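New to this. Please check this record:
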Amino acid sequence: MNSMLVAIALAALLATSPVTTAGERPSDDDLRADANEPNEVLTYGMGYSAQRYSALTRIDKHNVARLAPAWALALENEAGEVGQPLVMDGVMFVADARWTVAIDAVSGRQLWRTPTNVDPDAAIAACCGVSNRGVALYKGLVLRGTLDAWLVALDQETGAEVWRTQVADWKQGYTITGAPLLAHGVVITGMSGADFGTRGFLDGYDPLTGKRLWRRYTTAAPGEPGGETWTVENAYQTGGASTWLTGSYDPRLDLVYWGTGNTGPWNPNFRGGDSLFAASVIAVRPTTGELAWYYQFTPDDMFDYDAVGEFILAELDIGGTRRKVIVQLNKNGFVYVLDRANGTLLSAQAYAKTNWATHVDLKTGRPVETPVAASLRAGNKEILWPSFRGAKNWAHAAFSPRTGLLYANTIQLSSTYRISDPGPTRLGQWWIGATEFKYLYEDGAVHGHMEAIDPLTGQARWRVPVQDRYNLSSMLVTASGLLFTGRHTGEFIALDADTGEELWMFRVGSGINSSPITWARDGRQYVTVLVGLGGAGAGLVAKVGGGVPRGGSVWTFAVPQ
């Protein structure tokens, strides 16, 4: 009798205990712990902090020269691979514009492949290549956006579609190229289209049903806070400020940090004012989309500098106090450090050559513009530093808590342009209000670097010049002092994070403009990168005479046992 009572009590306990099964992974707790559990990669950015830092040390400076391919898999895609894989329970999840793929992470065997079924005509609305940067994982689902602006959930085990929700109409200029973010039980997605006369927004959805929970527009309407910064009537409705790169998240503060894109059009005469919240970071509550605070990096952005790049969560010593901050290497040539609780500007220093602004006023938070900027606003043609491509483009920087440094592929390039009448908006035609623009490449000149940057001074601790234009690959840094990145000419490389010395290189057969990861399984560390020339990187190779074929693939490396 006593044994029966014990059995009944035990059964009741098990029935009410929160047991996580494989089909329910990852849970919210799993996602919060991602950066501290380096054997898996569950989030875009390798943790909510977007540091792209791994605590794994099995591959180090002493054995990295022995790194060799463990496997490679063709992805049947020639449009370009710009994404970041995720790895959970020994399965790797990869996405591009055509496919979502599940792979046995150790053997490289394909488990399933699901087509995106994108409307083929949607490519006309893509600004910078037909691409996709990755997926989110949550409770047995694979979540992703599509080029024709749908949000889709797939079954992790089979790849079968579970639900599909239309985010926007691509025929109005909207696309999705970024990976979604799963924060506080909400899947958050941005959109692309600022150069096509759209109104930017950020959306939150129920990840289990696809129901939209909220929408936060990123251009302020009349009567709203910031609405007065659009002085041309109805300009906010086509004001851009797209949200095409994945944000970061602080679970302690319950704030999501998301960057917004350039204004639409660039020509300020068709907008008027600072044009909030373009070229800004917005801090929002993930469950409601409520705006907690914002900071605008380039008011009245007429340079295409935007602010969609990654926001890295870090802790830095500032004035003798340890501060919890967000850091961004902005396209405009300044590195910014903000208090992540309230958006207070703590530091802003130039890390690249700039001629549009002399410095950022820490009291007002605004850049102090030069006569070059004033001349451009007056309608004159000028040489602009940095160019529209920025001092750093979308390819993500990494941050090492060990060194306190940022690691990035930077760009050293100027351009010319003058403002013009954008005319009416037309599908598939850029609506930017600029003409006579040209990148000023110089034969034999250095146009990019791989470098380590102090986030509080903007100074480079070391920098390595890049031959053949510049790199458009993200950085990955490890606790063992290694950096991994790729070149658009097809070399995957490892550098010494302390000196910039190249320690290893492997030619993967096509250009690299993606985000590498590292992970471990059964005590063995691996490094994975997506390969496939495309997106903005395709034009770079044309400048250096071609010779780099297209064709998507995923490569995984390990030290031979």
